[in-house]
Amino acid sequence: MDIVATLVTGFGFWNPIIWLAVLAVALVIAYLIWLTGESSYKPGTEQTKPYLSGNPEPAKQDVHVGGGHLYWGFTEAMRGYYDRIVPLHTGVLTDYLLWFFGIAAILILIVGLI
Amino acid sequence: MTLIETILAAVGGTVAMAVFGIVAGLFFLGVDRKFAALMQARIGPPLRQPFIDAAKLMRKENIVPENAIPWIFNGAPILALASAITILLYLPVGSIMPVLGGAGDLILVMYLLTIPALAMVVGGFASGSPYATVGAQREMVILIAYELPLAIAIIAIAWRLSMAGIADPFSLTTIAANPVWGVVGPVGAVGLLILLGILAWVTPAELSRIPFDAQEAETELAGGLLVEYSGKNFALFYLAQAVKTIVMAALAVALFLPWNLSSFVAMAPAVAVAADFVFFLAKVLLVVFFSISLIRVSMARFRINQIVSIYWVWLGLAGFVGLALVMIDAILAGV
């Protein structure tokens, strides 16, 4: 298989190598712009402390956003959906298999009808 | 074109698009500020103010906080600007067809749009600041939220073009050359108007502008994921914002307003390119006014959970209605 060929899916297409080449050039341009800027600052002074509107910094573990909270806004907005879906995840394998076969049966019926 | 020629065109195109994206982007940020000022009965800053701001930021101290991971903290703004520039190469500018039109389609553009936002998320998490962490978390959520309506709008247009027998419906060259308004009937036109409205509402979220700027939210998060950024790092995020403004406007123009002056008025080829370019900038101005300035002046910031509801429930439903109308139109047309 030609590694530099454009991937054609029938409707869509894209060429990853060309994108990577373009990204490399764009990164060089962005880096050159970045280099022209001022680099200095005062390490170890007040200016390198996190800005918290003058409040003391809480312990790291208290302000850590864990994986479970990463999508908080999403789960909060879709609470009506998640409140129904989460309890269905019982952790019991046979329950999951039942869902799997049930949904597969419905899909086969729909496909068969169409 | 051989691979070498394509790569050479890509390199030249990248330099040209970087210059165009940054200069035009900063100019339109100035236009947006002027529009906002005029709507609020202020004189507002001069149009060149974003250039002055960027130049000043480049001369300021580039503070790296003690909690930050320096290489990621410094690398994120560079990646944000670079990835925003690459998207411009896939979009038509006036009658100048995309440099990489044959090397990527609309679906690719949709996914490339997420990279500058992800760079901001990475930079926010690497800042080691609680405000930035919350801001980065919100940016992730917003990113997922506007994906659904944006995808519906894009797929509806490509599907309708495909139904009209046009080959390569996802190619931006095809979409620019075959305005979708000419393919649909009255029912489809209503559907397209709904989808145009959806794209106008996705644009402020993509650009982190009011009312969808919960990830920065100056009044509650003090700048959110950008709170620790200063100097040249902040300047690069600002430039990335400018380039993204052109990207989103160029995308809206390519999808919904692809007409060129040279299609209506006979003119010499060189004049046609210049006239179409000026016409393109006028269309960008229109998009900037309606989907950035007007919305941000007339609205207050939404909460993060409201943003998700708006995109997934209301704009998602509106998108499906638009898509259904486009499909009904295709059935009525007998395709």
UniProtKB/TrEMBL annotation, chain B:
It comes from the Archaea. The chain crosses the membrane at residues 6-29, 68-91, 106-128, 140-159, 179-202, 235-257, 277-299, 311-333. InterPro entries: ComplexI_Subunit1 (IPR052561), NADH_UbQ_OxRdtase_su1/FPO (IPR001694). Pfam families: NADHdh. It is found in: Membrane. Its main location: membrane. Keywords: Membrane, Transmembrane, Transmembrane helix. It is a multi-pass membrane protein. This is NADH-quinone oxidoreductase subunit H.
